[in-house]
Amino acid sequence: MQRFWCNVCVAFLIFMSSLATADELRPVRIAKPVGGHIHPAACVSSKGTIVVTYGQINHRDLRILRSADGGRTWTEPTPFEHTIQKTYYPGSLTTLRDGRLMHAWNRWSGENNELEPRSVLFSLSEDDGVSWSEPKPLPRTENVMSVIRHPIVELEANCWLVPLSDRTFQFDPTTGQSEPFGDGRLHGLVPIVRTPKGTFISGGGLRSTDGGKTWKEVEKFPNLKEQGWRHEMVCLSNGLLLASEIPGPGVGGERIRYVLSRDDGLTWKDTFEYHNPGRPIGGRACPRTVEVDAKTIGVVFYDVSEQQEGGPGLFFLCIPITSLGK
């Protein structure tokens, strides 16, 4: 019996030592944006390369950078080739099941740089984000502003669930054809994820177990709908759901944390805080989380406070999944 309790104590100590607190987490500065709509996006390729895009200068300089070692070191940020000398608003990144990366962003102007209602373009990469195909447009409503900020959901090969501000639809990239998703409702500019059980969770606080045909409201759901472009929701491969929350006054609050669901999106109880500088963040942070590997998640966010060492920055933070508890 004594040996049994000794083994239990050792196991407990090992488990506790694997839990990282917010104080122990150390973000890596990966860029120093000038300002404006920085709004990063992120994905991880099938080879493990982390790819991030962000706005360096408001609407005029969309940049891309990569990490091949789990977020420890990064390439120098370079302009994204298809937005050079064009106006834009940052969008999203998604890794497709065939290994290609899909980057969608918001075009603010036409070929001659004349302003027009925002529309969404997408481009694909077959080499971990080094080069990108010629942009193609996503369907849009005539003369209505269309914006994307969250990853698509790949329902099956050549069938994408696309959450835009003005439309929520299924899209076939090979034909360019689209059709309404599920019951045809507009979810708006909020994230939508599919869990390993096939459940769809909408950032509007809705849950569907029948492919989007019917939806039920989730009680005490994190407030993602307000400023849905700012917040995120992701589902890890183990089924754990994470939604961002940024408490505190002002434009950007004072700390960033996850609200967690461990039961397929039915309830959202626990929280995990990962950025608390003890002062106003100053910007909207717009965190975006990726699953780096089976043991680690990484989150990219920005903090534009001049009070921090080095001034405003874009940061990447690795978090052990065990830190999120069970």
Query: How many separate domains?
Result: 1
CATH structural architecture: 6 Propeller
Q: What is the CATH topology descriptor?
A: Neuraminidase
Structural class: mainly beta
Radius of gyration: 20 Å
Which H/E pattern describes the elements? Answer: HEEEEEEEEEEEEEEEEEEEEEEEE
- Major sheet: arrangement of strands: 1-24-23-22
| Helix coverage percent | under 10%
* CATH class value: Mainly Beta
Number of strands: 24
In this structure, how is the largest beta sheet organized? 4 strands, antiparallel
Would you mind describing this structure in some detail?
Helix content is 5%, strand content 38%. 41% of the residues are buried. The protein has a single domain, classed as 6 Propeller (Neuraminidase). The protein is mainly beta and 326 residues long. Residues 1-20 have low confidence and may be disordered. The chain contains one helix and 24 strands. Strand 7 (101-109) and strand 8 form a beta hairpin. The strands form six sheets. It has a four-stranded antiparallel β-sheet with strand order 1-24-23-22, with no helix packed on it. A four-stranded antiparallel β-sheet has the order 2-3-4-5, with no helix packed on it. A four-stranded antiparallel β-sheet has the order 6-7-8-9, with no helix packed on it. The protein has one helix spanning 2-17, and strands at 28-31, 41-44, 50-57, 61-67, 78-79, 88-95, 101-109, 115-125, 136-137, 153-156, 159-163, 168-172, 177-180, 192-194, 200-202, 206-208, 216-217, 233-235, 241-245, 256-261, 271-275, 288-291, 296-303, 313-320.
